[in-house]
Amino acid sequence: MARTKAAMPAANFVPPSRLDGLVLTIHDPDGDLLIDFAAMRGPKKLVQETAEAFSHLTGELGTWNSAMTARTSLDGIRAFLRWAVDRKILRSYAELTPAVWNGWRTYCAETYSPATAGAYLRRLRLVAEVVPGLPERTREVIRWPMEYHERDQPSYTLDQFLAIRRAAYVVVRAAHERITANYALTMRPTEEWEPTKRLRADALHQVLREGVPADRAGYAALGAITAANAQAKGLARAHLFLTDEESYAAAALLISHEGSNPSTLARYSVADSQANLGGVNTIYTVAVEKRRRKSRARFTTTHVDRGPGSVGDAWRLIEEATAPAREHLGHRGNPTDKLFIWCGQNTGVRTGLPRCDHFAERTNWWATQDGLPRLSLRTLHRTYQTVYRKQPNHNTRRTHESRYLLLDGAARAAAMKDDIAAQQRAADEHASSVRMRMADTPVEPAKDTALAACEDIHHHPETGELCRPTSFFLCLLCPNAVAAPRHLPYLVLLLDELDILRPSLVTEDWNARFAEHHALLHGFLRKNASAAEIQDARRHITDRDRRQAELMISGRFNR
Known about the structure:
It is a single chain. This protein has helices at 44-57, 67-87, 98-111, 114-129, 136-141, 158-185, 195-210, 216-221, 229-237, 244-258, 262-266, 311-321, 323-331, 377-388, 397-403, 409-431, 488-501, 507-513, 515-528, 531-538, 543-554, and strands at 19-20, 23-26, 33-36, 272-275, 282-289, 298-305, 341-343, 349-351, 437-438, 453-454, 481-483. It is built from 21 helices and 11 strands. The strands form 4 sheets. Strands 1-2-3 form a 3-stranded antiparallel sheet, with helices on one face. The chain has a 3-stranded antiparallel sheet with strand order 4-5-6. By secondary structure, it is mainly alpha-helical. The radius of gyration is 32 Å and the shape is extended. Helix content is 48%, strand content 8%. The protein has 4 domains: 19-141, no CATH class; 187-237, no CATH class; 244-376, no CATH class; 416-554, no CATH class.
């Protein structure tokens, strides 16, 4: 058979618009999203431009990779439009002047948390930048860096974290037992059963295929007769589908075991599973998708079912408890392989995770005692990284430190304590490597270097030639280097400045640029000066010392 290739579209090809009037359809593997911009407050042209910007950002050439990004961005844009409409200052993006932008910035800073304010500003900037009529001066201004300080995002304590895991397991285990028992009834012939059991099985089969029992007798067989029709539907569906609260507990259980963030969790599909070589444990191979990554956005991880308490067991319970929901969606013409599927009291069967962060009544399985913190999947995810595992999980060391450790006061303090201990060990190890010595007699100022002094700068100990160090910190390793008592204030200042700099750098940068220098200098001072002498040296630091230390640390003296 001859091979054929699909023809490339013409150069002037324009893909069909996904925007029908003010209704935008966003296609997504997790399910299409329809946004009706007609419901937004604001002048018609302003709303139309916003809809077209969303269409561009979620299109082939856009930067938003999921419907979830568009959905979360709506909050910030709606807030901006309300603000602009209330003040009657904007009819289109052509009127978004630098003054209006700065007014919105000020309002955000005064009204919202730093994180929310920053998110709202970034969302408006992304939308405004793709609107053709935006004034060029405004286009320049909104690109200026936006500085804001995110507030601390505390984690749970280890005891709270483990208590959440235990409570979630109890809920998921009970839901699994209820659903799998009822699901089994739908897969057996009922002819020989007694009438009551047969009626119950028939009602369950109707729920599995149609989502609700066919008649009042079916509701009665499932104990779902209530005054409220919606409540009756919810009670009937709960026989085969996870409720929103149980789905939230399932998410909490899995996060507490493997640490994924909620958005990644919501995209999980059922895993490939197989027995290990011994045939004792089941291994689940899970596909992970991190859409915002530029590289390695998709990879796999494995979970082993080693029995109760293992991550593989948690996965099995959730996958088996949501199996009837997947079959139901298949019957309804919406087949899916998503792991998380749930059904609320007033909703049909849905994929993904319910939004329960702001509804405490939906997490009563956890908040059963006074004094317990509210349950948040994001806080649980953060706790997994900062308190439980204490290392990056599906992200880089830089992200782990900047987005997790540095935003958690308790984690920062614990990390700082560990860091100080590590620095102490490094100083002790490097003390024997230090070759620079403390002189007993005065050293001529003419021999001074950027670090201390050199007895023979024209003859390097190894090359015999003029010394040209790539960094003067390396003088600490040279036998020609010497320090006099008058150098002590400056050396102490250098060490103090490095200590101040350390928390602002991620580990990779610190290790590459300063870790060895800090350890050598620390080792030299521990070896040659007492604590009292170091404290006294701090009282004799001069402005010249400070200027020189700034140049030294910034690398201005480096070759």
